[in-house]
């Protein structure tokens, strides 16, 4: 879910960077010294995990892991998103440096949506692992749709000639949203079963 | 990232190089005039030649972004609407799509090549130090540096996991067993990395980590660096002037 270099005009790029600076400043304010290795190591792990091909039909898909990222890293996931996008732009040429701000907004807001919503549910349903994992899957599904909506919004304001492209982009992401929801649900179920502390630490954080 | 070749781009002070090339990237993003395409292409070719990076390496690196761009521009040409220049059955080629496609192609490939040259002619720790110089928080710079290191670590790790899974009969098939194997790998890697991050912090703390970024390399800035940046700023000014005229 990236917007490529050269698509958006400079006003959208500036707006993206302004929002990203705000989000990053808020996340860095919350970040403690002991969280630096955690955000880096987990960020790298998410980056590599998103490269794993998941067999679907006759093809395979690469995951976005919005849901898992938001649930495990919490608000600090914004920093992991920025670094992840930066390295995707540098190493695999997905996205780019000038669109880093816009792409961060497109990916961070859905991740934060999952984080805050899941936290509310977790406090109420702490012991119901099955229900929590289903909720994480549903939230993940909506997170992909939110990201897709934000990307389409940026494309729409850049030029109406891109709407045909945006429509094809949206169709492919609806399929991805369903797959992402199912896989997030499975991953969160396993984590809640094997190492629930990984999720509880973020949920119990104040703020 | 940076290779051992010495060129005028390798010798350019990283702070000046970073700020000059970023200003050029953002100037490129505002380009609409087709005259500017020639200026941009001329600048990029000069940059690649001066960097002494092998052209074959550069061409190899643009294969993936070019493939993505090709798909995107093809859809754009067929769906953009506006003045029709060719129609056959359901296929219609629009002039607006071609114009926007060329614009995207020039801007996208130039921005990518600038970043490629920047990272292949600069040392990563000096780039990080220059980010600190530009008042980027130290904790953020450290996260970028650590993430860079651990990406390669986990890439090796995942390769090993796939080899061991294949030895146990895993294949990329769309069946329940294959999917379960991939899910287990993902969960396994996430839990292990979470546990590892705790151990890394303790080890770093024992070695005196205080959240600050430190490096022994120093910046060397001279008049030649200012001149190189002045040249880039002049080209940016010409591009802006052409846009305004």
Provide structural commentary:
The complex is a heterodimer of chains A (207) and B (245). With 207 residues, chain A is mainly alpha-helical. Chain A has one domain (10-203): Arp2/3 complex 21 kDa subunit ARPC3. Chain A contains eight helices and two strands. Chain A has helices at 10-30, 35-49, 66-73, 77-92, 100-124, 129-158, 163-194, 197-203, and strands at residues 53-56, 59-62. A two-stranded antiparallel sheet of chain A has the order 1-2. In chain A, a hairpin with a 2-residue loop joins strand 1 and strand 2. Chain A starts with 9 loop residues before the first helix and ends with a helix. Chain B has 245 residues and is mainly alpha-helical. Chain B folds into two domains: 14-123 and 219-244, no CATH class; 136-206. Helices cover 72% and strands 4% of the residues of chain B. Chain B is built from nine helices and two strands, in the order H-H-H-H-E-E-H-H-H-H-H. Chain B has helices at 14-29, 34-51, 55-61, 63-79, 95-120, 124-133, 138-167, 176-206, 223-244, and strands at 84-88, 91-94. In chain B, strand 1 and strand 2 (91-94) form a beta hairpin. The longest helix of chain B is centred in the last third of the chain and has 31 residues, at 176-206. The radius of gyration of chain B is 24 Å and the shape is flat.
**Structurally, how many domains make up the residues of chain A?**
1
**Helicity level of chain A:** over 70%
CATH topology title of chain A:
Arp2/3 complex 21 kDa subunit ARPC3
Number of helices of chain A: 8
Query: Please, what is the oligomeric state?
Result: heterodimer
Low-confidence stretches of chain B: none
Write the H/E string of chain B, N to C: HHHHEEHHHHH
How much strand of chain B? under 5%
Q: Strand sequence of the main sheet of chain B, in spatial order?
A: 1-2
Radius of gyration of chain A: 17 Å
**Overall 3D geometry of chain B?**
flat
**Overall spatial form of chain A:** globular
Distance between the termini of chain B: 40 Å
Give the CA-CA distance, first to last residue of chain A.
29 Å
The low-confidence parts of chain A are none
